[in-house]
From TrEMBL:
UniProt xrefs under Pfam families: Sugar_tr (PF00083)
TM region(s), chain numbering: 79-98, 105-125, 131-156, 168-191, 295-315, 335-353, 360-383, 395-419, 440-461
UniProt protein name: General substrate transporter
Chief location of this protein within or outside the cell: membrane
Gene3D superfamilies xrefs: MFS general substrate transporter like domains
Family, as annotated: Belongs to the major facilitator superfamily. Sugar transporter (TC 2.A.1.1) family.
Major facilitator superfamily (MFS) profile domain boundaries: 41-503
PANTHER family: MAJOR FACILITATOR SUPERFAMILY (MFS) PROFILE DOMAIN-CONTAINING PROTEIN (PTHR48022:SF64), PLASTIDIC GLUCOSE TRANSPORTER 4 (PTHR48022)
Native species: Aspergillus pseudoustus
SUPFAM superfamilies in the cross-refs: MFS general substrate transporter
C-alpha cells in the first residue's frame, strides 16, 4: 500500500474550487506598502535574464566594432563559432549548479552564486588580453547567466502575490530585451572610440546588473515554499502575512495559500533526499512527470530552433550579406531592433493572464514560420541578384518583425509556463534541463521545424490559466486523467465541471 503523503500518482484529482477572494484592493495595489515593497524587490530576480540578453546583443555589436575585429584578428569560421559557442558551453556547466545552490541553501544563495560568476566573467572579458582569455570569460558568463535565470524564474513564481503571479513571472524574460537594448546602445555609443575601450567598456558593463543582485539579494524575502520545505513553517507564514496580506494573518488568500503549500509539499518528496539518480528516475517513472519532461525538452527545442539563433548571434553576418556593412548601420540596427523587441515583450507579458498560455505558443509559432519564410526568400533573391536592394532591405524589415513574433509565445509566456508546470521538488531541477542551449544555422530547416514545433505544442501542452501552482499539479498527476480541449486548452475530463469556477 502506498504512503498517502507521497503516493501522489494514485490520488484522485482534487476539485478545482475557486480560490478565496483577498481582502486587499489589488486593482490599486501601489498604496499597499508591503505589496508595493515586494513588487519593487522583484526587480532583483528580474535582472537575472539581463545578462543573457546583454550577451546576445553585445556579440552582434562587438562583431561590428572595427577595433574588436582588429584586436582579435577578425575571427571567422570555426574561430567565430568558438566565440559564440563558449557562452552556451558555460551554460551547460552552470545548469548543474542551479538545484544544489537553490534547493539546499535557498533561492537567495542561488541568485548570489550565479551573479558572482557573471561578475567574474565580465571582469575577465573587459580585461581580456588574448583570444583564450576572452573565451574563458564567456564560459563564466554563460554559467552564471544560466544559474541566475534558473533560480530567478521559480523565485518570482513562488513569491509573487497569487493574483499577480502570471504577469510577474511573464515579465521575467522581458528583461532579456532590456539587456539587449543596453548592450546595443553601449556598442553604438562606444564604437567610435579609437582604441580597445570601444569594446572593453561594454564588455565590463555586463557586470552591472550582477553587482546590483549581489548587493541587494540579501534584502529580498525567502521563498515561502522553500521555507516550508525546510520545516520553517512559521517563517513562511510570516512572509505570506506580510507581503500577501498586508500584515493581516486572517486574510483568506494568505490562509488558503499557506495550507495549500503545506499540503502539497507534504505530498512531495523531500528535496534534501533527492539525488541526481532519484531525480532522473522520477522524471520517467510517473506519467505526469514524463509529460512534464517532454514539455520541458520540447519547449527548449522550440525556443532555440525557431530561427532566433541567427537573430541573436549572427545578425552582423546577415547584414553584411545584404550589403549593410558599416559600423554605424549595423550597431544602429542592432540597438533599435532590441528596443522594438522589448516594447513588444512588455505588452505580451500581460497576455497569458487574459488569453492563456497554450494559445500564445501556437500563434507565435505561426507568425515565426511566416517571417522565416520571408527572410529566407529575401536572402535568396538578394544572393542571386545583388542590385535588388528591395530584397535586401526586406530581410532587415523581417528581422525587426521576428523578435515580436518570438516574444508573443516564447518570451514572458515561456518563462511563466515552465516554472508553473513543475511541482516544487522538481522546479529548479527541471529548469536545469530547460537551459541547455541548442544552436542551429540553416534557414530552410527552421521553416520545416516550426511546423513540427506547432504540432508538439498543440498536442501536448495543457492550458494553465486559472488554477494555482498547487492545483496545476493535478492536471498532470491525477490517476487516469484524460485531457480534452476546452477554449483552446487541455483540462482533465473529470474536472470539466470545475473549469468555470477557476477561470
Amino acid at each position: 500500500m502506498g504512503n498517502p503523503d507521497t503516493d501522489t500518482e494514485t490520488k484522485e484529482a482534487p476539485q478545482l474550487a475557486a480560490p478565496p477572494e483577498t481582502l486587499l484592493d489589488l486593482s490599486h495595489w501601489w498604496p499597499l506598502k508591503n505589496l508595493r515593497t515586494l513588487n519593487i524587490m522583484l526587480l532583483i530576480p528580474l535582472l537575472s535574464i539581463f545578462s543573457q540578453g546583454f550577451d546576445g546583443s553585445i556579440m552582434n555589436g562587438l562583431q561590428s566594432v572595427s577595433h574588436w575585429q582588429t584586436y582579435f584578428g577578425t575571427p571567422t569560421g570555426s574561430l567565430l563559432g568558438i566565440f559564440n559557442a563558449a557562452y552556451p558551453l558555460g551554460g551547460i556547466c552552470g545548469v548543474f549548479l542551479i538545484s544544489p545552490s537553490a534547493d539546499m541553501f535557498g533561492r537567495r544563495v542561488g541568485l548570489a552564486t550565479g551573479a558572482a560568476l557573471c561578475c567574474l566573467g565580465a571582469g575577465l572579458q573587459g580585461g581580456a588580453s588574448n583570444i583564450a582569455m576572452f573565451i574563458i570569460s564567456r564560459l563564466f558568463i554563460g554559467a552564471g547567466s544560466v544559474v541566475v535565470a534558473g533560480v530567478g524564474a521559480p523565485y518570482i513564481t513562488e513569491v509573487a502575490h497569487p493574483a499577480q503571479r502570471s504577469t510577474a513571472t511573464a515579465l521575467f524574460l522581458t528583461f532579456y530585451s532590456v539587456g539587449s537594448i543596453v548592450a546595443g546602445w553601449c556598442t553604438f555609443g562606444t564604437f567610435r572610440i579609437d582604441g580597445t575601450a570601444s569594446w572593453r567598456i561594454p564588455s565590463t558593463l555586463q557586470a552591472v546588473p550582477s553587482v546590483i543582485q549581489l548587493i541587494f539579494v540579501w534584502f529580498i524575502p525567502q521563498s515561502p515554499r522553500w521555507l516550508v520545505s525546510q520545516g520553517r513553517n512559521e517563517e513562511a507564514l510570516a512572509v505570506l502575512v506580510k507581503y500577501h496580506g498586508e500584515g493581516n494573518s486572517d486574510d483568506p488568500v494568505v490562509q488558503h495559500e499557506y495550507e495549500e503549500i503545506r499540503n502539497t509539499l507534504r505530498a512531495e518528496h523531500d528535496v534534501s533526499q533527492m539525488t541526481i539518480f532519484s531525480f532522473l528516475v522520477e522524471l520517467v517513472s510517473k506519467p505526469g512527470n514524463r509529460r512534464r519532461t517532454f514539455i520541458i525538452v520540447w519547449a527548449a527545442i522550440c525556443s532555440q530552433m525557431s530561427g532566433n539563433a541567427f537573430v541573436s548571434y549572427y545578425l552582423s553576418p546577415i547584414l553584411r550579406s545584404v550589403c549593410l556593412k558599416s559600423d554605424l548601420q549595423q550597431t544602429l540596427i542592432n540597438a533599435t531592433s532590441q528596443m522594438v523587441s522589448w516594447f513588444t515583450a512588455l505588452y505580451f507579458a500581460t497576455l497569458p493572464a487574459r488569453l492563456g498560455r497554450r494559445k500564445l505558443f501556437l500563434w507565435s509559432l505561426v507568425a515565426m514560420w511566416v517571417i522565416v519564410i520571408c527572410i529566407t526568400a529575401g536572402s535568396a533573391v538578394f544572393a542571386n541578384n545583388n542590385p535588388n536592394k528591395a530584397a535586401g532591405y526586406s530581410v532587415v524589415v523581417f528581422l525587426y518583425l521576428f523578435s515580436p513574433a518570438y516574444n508573443l509565445g516564447f518570451n514572458g509566456n515561456l518563462g511563466l509556463y515552465i516554472p508553473e508546470i513543475l511541482p516544487f521538488h522538481l522546479r529548479t531541477k527541471g529548469l536545469s534541463f530547460f537551459y541547455f542551449d541548442i544552436q542551429w544555422r540553416l534557414y530552410i530547416v527552421f521553416v520545416v521545424w516550426i511546423v513540427v514545433e506547432f504540432a508538439g505544442v498543440y498536442l501536448v501542452f495543457p492550458e494553465t490559466k486559472g488554477p494555482t501552482l498547487e492545483e496545476i499539479a493535478s492536471i498532470f498527476d491525477a490517476r487516469g486523467a484524460r485531457f480534452r480541449h476546452i477554449e483552446g486548452g487541455l483540462v482533465p475530463k473529470r474536472d470539466l465541471e470545475h473549469v468555470d469556477s477557476v477561470k
